[in-house]
Amino acid sequence: MKAVIKSMIANLHAAPDSASELIDEGLYGMVVEIVEQRHDWFFVKTPYRYEGYCKASDLILDTENAIEWQEGANHCISQGFADVLQEPKIQSAKITTLVRGSIIRVLPKEGLGEEWTIIQLATGGVGFTRKQWIKEKVDRNELTEDNFRDRVVQTALSYLTTPYRWGGKSPLGIDCSGLCSMAYMLNGVVIYRDAKMIDGFPIKEIEMEQIQKGDLLYFPGHIAMYIGDDLYVHSSLGGNEVSINSLNKSHFHYRDDLATTITAVGSLFPAK
Asked: Which residues form the NlpC/P60 domain (predicted)?
């Protein structure tokens, strides 16, 4: 069975208990696979093979609808937060608020001008949001390597100062692997949502000397994105937010605890 997440953010827990560890977040419109049910909790598997317990109230349990939604919902929220309104005007009542990465369907509608667009929600309802706050899902195959590297870095940097949240992956709070996986996902590539490389995902190990912007730095229990000039962006538990640090000892933002403990470098692209 498949289901669609209908909450702005659906918490995925390690156990069917709200007090258990938060291991991931499912964002609005994401389709998940139902593995099993335990009372009012469902054990679900995400498209990137992460698993956790989600409350039934966060899901639309309808496989046919989920498949149709997965095929037809080709846009996502690009703004940190976007209100969905009942009418195309700022004074209108709010239907819901969605965060960056939420999946929606854009409906054709003439006469709205350049500011507004009409969208369909996973529940079937419709609402209005600003055109500049949404974008079509990215097809990685339509991007050159240089373009992809630029885009994935800019996406990661758009989360700067976002508070650190264990298991988080939204502008409300995000962890290290959440930051890197969302930056890649918003640019059409699904990577493993953890601080390691595993088989079946496109990130492969390269030598440190081959690193380029957009590649990933791995540390014990931590991951960061290299952005060039010896700098990297990451969501650090020690720093409490998404920030930039340096691998250069003479740089003001050098962190010895990370620069000296790099275990691997990963890239989407073959080493040159």
From this structure: 146-266
